[in-house]
Amino acid sequence: MSDFYTAWLERSKNNQKTVDEAPRVARSKDLKWVRTPQDYKAALMIAPELGFPTGGSCLMRAEIPVGWHTGRHLHGEEAIYVESGEGFIILDDKRYDFFPGTIFHIPYRSPHQLFNTGSVPVGYLSGLAWHLEADVYMGKMEQLEECGENDPKILAQFPKEESQDWPEDGRRISMHQKQFEKSDESKHGATYFLMGRSGKQNGFKATGVAISSIFVDLPHTKSHSHAHPEAYLYALEGDGYSEIGGKRYDWNQGDAVHVPPGMLHHQHFNPYDRDMKELRFEFGIRYWLVDQWKGYTTVDKHLKATTHMVD
Ligand SMILES: [Fe+2]
Ligand SMILES: [Fe+2]
Question: In Å, how far from its chain's centre is CA 271?
Answer without folding.
Answer: 25
